[in-house]
Amino acid sequence: MNKFNTLKLATLLLLSCIFTPLVAQDSINRIVAIVDKGVILQSQLDEQVKQTLQRLTPEQRTSISRVDIEKRVLDRMIITELQLQIARRSAIKISDDEINDSIDRIASGNKLTADDFLNVLQKDGISLNSFKNSIRDQMLVRRVQSSYVHHEVKVSEQEVQSFLKLLEQSEGDQSSEYHLGHILIATPENATAKQLKKAKKKASIVLAALKQGKQFSTLSISHSDASNALEGGDLGWLKLAQMPSLLKPYVEEMQVGDYSDAIQSPSGFHIIKLYETRGQEKVMVTKTHVRHILIKINALVSDQVAQERLLNLKTRIENGEDFATLARANSEDRGSAITGGDLKWVQPGALVPAFESAMNNLAINQLSQPVQTQFGWHLIQVLGREQQDNTQLMREAQARSQLQQRKADAAIEAWLTKLRDEAYVEYRLNN
Q1: Which of 241, 60, 247, 44 lies closest to 130, judged by CA?
Q2: Which of 23, 299, 362, 377 has the lowest CB atom count within 10 Å?
Q3: DSSP for residue 368
Q4: Residue 157 burial (CB < 10 Å; 0-12/13-18/19+)?
Q5: Measuring CA to CA, which residue among 210, 313, 328 is closest to residue 262?
Q6: Distance between CA 175 and CA 4 in Å, rounded?
Q7: Angle between helices 216-223 and 193-211 (to 10 degrees)
Q8: In terms of pLDDT, which residue wins out, 121 or 79?
Q9: Are 299 and 90 in contact (CB under 8 A)?
Q10: Are 91 and 298 contacting, i.e. CB atoms less than 8 angstroms apart?
Q11: Backbone angles phi, psi at 262, to 5 degrees
Q12: Each residue of 164-185: pLDDT tens digit?
């Protein structure tokens, strides 16, 4: 630790000693941890412990002592506080609208209206202000992680293709589905030779009837011992991975309309019919041709200044000035500014949610109001939309997302470990 940091630490410890008698008078405001330039109070810890306990089952609550829960929650709060300090130093902000949108999504995900969700919070003893602060902290942490880690996570096209190939080899053709019918001629456990012979003869009678053109469903109702016999033995649509392993080799060799010979298993003799097959349905998406002008926030440019600049540019464009020319002169997105702010044709999910949501609500050639994202403030214009078969691209995107998440999780874990090791942390939980 250098001389300057030692002096800062000594000053902080001196101040904490001076104010300890005052803090002790109010246990709610007792400091339970010093984290670099910040502190965590008992009241903050109590609130997080309460929320954690409410998420646990009764069995989990009784099996873990409150002391252990407090320690684990405090460790998590320390890591969060270190990241929030980075957010404060970097002037990262979360707007009230973003928080309200997040609450609406949480409520919708639980099939509740916003008002009903707030009532649930109140019944659980969680104040709206406390919940909003928790949401704000979570969003700030995600943005810090995105700034410091996620942009460094790269997935190559070769990695994506190799991953898809590996999936195909290990899982087979998971896009194909098979509509099957099933007849079971059951045999008892440890069946005798006589019982097996009788069941096999019955299966032969069913096969002979099928060859004569009898309907499979009718024969199922009259002869099958399966639980779905009265439904005509219909197994519905199944992927290979969902089928009993006994049936897979036969299904893979069958054509639509085919039925199998009697397939013997410990439970009896099975006859299956392939009614239909279908592949993965096409995934149609709307591609959007969009351009934007970005104004970033910094020590000299506040949120208000950025919005005013974009509103001024919006007025100029509406009065006839060229969007592309103004983007080249004003946009701080260096990658697109050189092409007049053009982001080209983008797929759903390619842009951050706030940007994409605003973009999707615009008519062709319409200009947006200033839109805030973690990158700054944007003026957006949609130039066109078109439909595209995105089935293969969707599979690739899903594979890429899985690979990115794996790499990001590992990178974040390593970064947080380093962040914690380099920080000054003093526990006062048991003081």
Answers
A1: 44
A2: 299
A3: P
A4: exposed
A5: 210
A6: 62
A7: 150
A8: 79
A9: no
A10: yes
A11: -70, 125
A12: 777 666 555 556 789 999 999 9
Burial of 335 (0-12, 13-18, 19+ CB in 10 A): exposed
Per the structure block, which two tokens stand in for 179?
A: 């509509």
Of residues 215 and 279, the one with the higher pLDDT is 215
Tell me how far apart the alpha carbons of residues 292 and 3 are, in angstroms, rounded to a whole number: 48
Query: Which pLDDT does position 151 carry in this prediction?
Result: 67
pLDDT of residue 279: 72
pLDDT for the residue numbered 113:
83
Q: What is the pTM of this model?
A: 0.45
Q: Map out the domains of the chain with their CATH numbers.
A: 3-151+420-427 (1.10.4030.10), 177-278 (3.10.50.40), 284-389 (3.10.50.40)
Copy the structure tokens of residue 355. 């940007």
Sole residue written with tokens 């991975």: 241
